[in-house]
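Section handout, structural biology tutorial.
Before the tutorial, make sure you can parse a SMILES string by hand: atoms, branches in parentheses, ring closures as digits. In the record below the ligand is zinc ion, and the chain has 65 residues. In the tutorial you will relate the predicted structure tokens back to the input. Do not try to memorize them.
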Amino acid sequence: MKSEVQAINKRWHEEHKMPPNAPMDERIEWHLAHAAECGCRPIPPSVLKAMDERGLLVPTPRSLK
Ligand SMILES: [Zn+2]
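Predicted structure of the complex:
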């Protein structure tokens, strides 16, 4: 059985490189775009926390219920 959700979107990653020392706001934007385009890894807890502090809606599987 193929798992499309977990597949890495290599093309998206090639086009969206995040610098290692990117500020948190940039990380949030990157992860939001990433979550929509690619399922290779979840948003890390530190970024989720920062999103919550900014009052952003955190996309989780639970919110899709
Ligand atoms: Zn990815």
